[in-house]
Amino acid sequence: MKYKSFDNEQEAITYRQSERNTGHAASLFTYSKGRHRVQVHECATKEEQQKSQHWLSQQAWSKSKDIEDLTKVKELIASPDFGS
């Protein structure tokens, strides 16, 4: 498994797609605006690529959901009504 970080989302998307085009599984993880990481799993077969891609996609979705939830909690705590 390898990782590559990007400040620009479009560059990350382009890199992710190029890795997929070479037969690897790759997913984009966005941690915040300007902070993106592509995770790549090098695959030997099409079947391995499909299984790995499914797993990576699930991981990326789960991570983005966690970040979204944490952002909502942070906004709630920052609200003037918090603790009232």
Task: Describe the fold and architecture.
This protein starts with a strand and ends in a 6-residue tail after the last helix. It has helices at 9-21, 46-78, and strands at residues 2-6, 25-32, 35-41. A 3-stranded antiparallel β-sheet has the order 1-3-2. With 84 residues, it is of the alpha+beta class. The protein has one domain (2-78). The protein is elongated. It contains 2 helices and 3 strands, in the order E-H-E-E-H.
Strand and helix map with partners:
Blueprint: E1 2-6, H1 9-21, E2 25-32, E3 35-41, H2 46-78
Antiparallel strand pairs: 1-3, 2-3
- Which range best describes the helical content: under 10%, 10-25%, 25-40%, 40-55%, 55-70% or over 70%? 40-55%
**Numbering strands along the chain, what is their spatial order in the largest sheet?**
1-3-2
Cα shape: elongated
SSE string? EHEEH
**Mean of pLDDT:** 91
Low-confidence stretches: none
Report the portion of residues in β strands. 15-25%
SS-based class: alpha+beta
Number of domains: 1
* Number of helical regions: 2
Rg over CA atoms, rounded to whole Å, is 16 Å
> Could you give a short account of the major beta sheet?
3 strands, antiparallel
Distance between the termini: 47 Å
Tell me the number of strands.
3
